[in-house]
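Sanity check

After download, print the first record. It should look like this:
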Amino acid sequence: MADKYYNNTCKEGHELQLKSTRDDNHSFNYFFECDGCKEEGFGSRYCCYSTGTCKYDLHEKCRNPSLTIQNPPHFPGRNFYFLQLPSASSQSSFCVACGKQISGFLYRSEYMSGLDLHPCCLTNLPLNISFAGANFNLKYYVVGGSEACFRCHKTTLYVPGTNIQGPGGWSYESACRAYWCHVYCMGEFRMDIIRDILLLMEKEGVSWSKNNLRRIALKLLSAANTVAGAILGQLGDPTDALLEMTGSG
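Expected structure tokens:
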């Protein structure tokens, strides 16, 4: 019996190949939507190099995901099984970690009803995140309280494009307890940072390298018109954080 779901070709049958951010001098077009989990991605992925119109992209981990995951970090003692899509009876399936609706690949608890997660949320969420001199710890609930999430400035997440309140999801809280952020917003925050970096790099016409990234990171902090600059300006020097977040450290 196979222990993985094999997804080695695009919908038109073309062989998928690994594309790395280091394949080209510039990486300004390296955002993509994964055709497996339907979540946004950046950087290396498997894709179709055919001249056709398939435009098929997969996160590296979505190419051959495990059919079962036992004892994942956030759910010791539990088993999860892989599904390509939520079942017809649960089309409004939401990830218990990030609170977002699930539209593609997911993992479902074997014994606990309603416990669904995106693949990346089940296996990739760190217990701790450190950047700009601040340490953030994962909490299996929304911290809330009198302060709002430092990115969305809200305590409640809503289904995108609606006024419908979504599930709470989890959050990250700073060790000093002065800041907190939804898990979903932390992921968006990372993308905000990368987008701002790429815009500055494209404007200056420079290649993706550690030295250029470090210089752009410092410039980002002083760029008052950038989302990431505005947020990181509250926390300190973002250089090391940006290097870590973009895998260039």
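If your output differs, re-run the checksum step. Summary of this record's structure: The CA atoms of residues 4 and 66 lie 4 Å apart.
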